[in-house]
Amino acid sequence: MDAVERYAEVFQDTPMAQLDRFLVHIFARNAKRLLLAPGQPPVLDLPDGQKFNLVPTPMTTVMVEALAGEVMGPDEKGNWSSVTTLDWTYVLDGKPLSLKLQRVSAGVSLEASPQGGSAAPTQPAAPRIELGATPKPSAPAASPSSPAPRIELGGAAGTTAAGATGGGNLAERLFKTLLARKGSDLHLTSHQAPLARISGDMEELSEFGVMGPSQMEDLMRSLAHGDIWRHFEENHDADFAYPFEAGGCRLRINYFMDRVGPGLVARVIPNEIPDPDALGIPEPVRRLAMLPKGLVLVTGPTGSGKSTTLAAIIDLANRQRKDHIITIEDPIEFVHPRKRCLVNQREVGTHTDSFKSGLRAALREDPDIVLVGEMRDLETISIALETALTGHLVFGTLHTNNAIGTIDRIVDQFPADRQQQIRVMLSDALKCVVSQVLLKKIGGGRVAALETLFIGPAIANLIREAKTPQIVSQMQTGKAYGQRLMNDAMVELIQARKVDPLEGYLKCPDKETFIQACKRNGIAFDLRAAGETDL
User: Fold this and answer.
1) What percentage of the chain has pLDDT greater than the value 90?
2) Nearest Cα to 266, choosing from 199, 147, 171, 131?
3) pLDDT in tens, 98-154
4) What's the whole-number average pLDDT of the chain?
5) CATH for 276-484?
6) Which of 534, 486, 484, 485 is nearest to 508 (CA)?
7) CA–CA gap between residue 82 and residue 323 (Å, rounded)
8) What is 238-304 written as a DSSP string?
9) β partners of residue 295
10) What CA–CA distance (Å, rounded) separates 310 from 289?
11) Three-class SS of residue 81?
12) Whole-angstrom Cα distance, residue 312 to residue 434?
């Protein structure tokens, strides 16, 4: 069933004003005109001459006629069948609008523009049911003085969250609920109830009900300023940081479009810089903040807490050194106020075009410490290496699963004829690789397991000679120098009764050696619970 058929099924017996959700933007944005034309999205003519698309979806003639038919009187409907242009006045919330419906070469278009003055509505506003919703059973009519009910789009009637409170109010309620339940991420998808990631698991926030595309759009507009919304309309995705003052935090938000409509994901970023003790960062990793120069990499899969660990290390440097720190992030997450260091934070897309351009510019800005939010490409990695070799301390992140694999990933980024040169540069510049993964804690919450590889003379020589597989044995014998393998880190957390053995098994990179490590330390667990029936 397509959108038009659903529209007809939902609205066939009930007077609607679905057009209102487009018309309200004329007054909200002080627009000169709204145009609904086949083959293009609904567009507003703004006072500064710019045009603004309200939604990315193009209209069709059937949709335009259906929307106009909702606000026509009997006379207009009778006249429309015999004319090519129809003009009439429509009053919305006491404000008169001039509507013009006309037949054009592509089908039928509708124009709306504000009239001068104001007038009272001639009749109570009709109840509003959005596309994709299940019609709510008829209820007794409200008295003329009562405001008409508003049934938002989405799933079954009665499950809607927004009501008449608007997108901004709904967003605040969702964010407060996320924080109250100690969630890390909020997921909103059209035609779905909101979900939150709590202690690593996705849990439905059923009290908010199903959210439809129109409700999602209202909420998203309430959070994004004009440039972000225009970027979303043009590219169907957008990233930005949102200060949520009511919750005492910031949120890293991503907008996207999928096959069912708009959606977003919001990740909580505390205003307070995380405490290294609370994060369980070992002392050798904390000392990285005092390195005079070199390259330090924090790696792990998406959502493993890399940014949090780096923020804690940068804060240590901010409190203990008297230097200049430059961060290049996408977007800016943790905000670092000046303590003993001068901190300049730049955002990709807002303050610089890319990581590589921001990093190249940083070399001319007298930095002592440079944080690169993500080393995505060959050129960014190359500039970061050169920056570290010229006497600066560079922190960066990579999406790799272990410390040794990080070295191979960097070398493999370069052409074969440059790889030996990069190995030599890496052996001189690289000081430490921290690889981490988040594990569910017993009793709730999550904790990071950290694998740490510190580069000494012996390991630097193995990097130069392309003998990275031998680094494992160096790490096993170098625990006194801060070396730690991921399996050993997980075993420590299990022995401290912070993590269940099965959770460690599911998240460990090398399951066979993990099982052996558990046996050596007297840790027993049932692998059948993980589906490993052959062990």
Assistant:
1) 50
2) 171
3) 999 998 877 889 999 998 743 333 333 333 333 333 333 443 333 333 333 332 333
4) 83
5) 3.40.50.300
6) 486
7) 78
8) EEEEEEEGGGTEEEEEEEEEETTEEEEEEEEEESSPPPHHHHT--HHHHGGGG-SSEEEEEE-STTS
9) 394, 430
10) 10
11) coil
12) 13
In DSSP terms, 33 is beta-bridged to 45
Q: Where are the domains of the chain?
A: 3-127, 166-270, 276-484
d(CA 347, CA 355): 9
Judged by average pLDDT, the poorest of 13-22, 263-272, 341-350, 366-375 is 13-22
Token pair 């909103």 in the structure block, residue: 188
Contact yes or no for 175/247 (Cβ under 8 A)? yes
Q: What is the second-level CATH architecture of the domain 3-127?
A: 2-Layer Sandwich (3.30)
Beta bridge partners of 453: 433
Dihedrals phi, psi of 191, to nearest 5 degrees = 65, 20
One DSSP character per residue, 92-115 reads ETTEEEEEEEEEETTEEEEEEEEP
* Same topology between domain 3-127 and domain 276-484: no
Residue 415 in tokens: 């052409």
Is it true that domain 166-270 has CATH number 3.30.450.90? yes
Q: What is the average pLDDT across 247-254?
A: 90
Nearest to 221 by CA among 54, 441, 416, 400: 54
Q: Whole-model pTM?
A: 0.63
The model's pLDDT over 174-218, given as tens digits with 9 standing for 90+, comes to 999 999 999 999 999 999 999 999 988 899 998 998 998 989 999
Q: Around Cβ 53, how many Cβ atoms within 10 Å?
A: 16
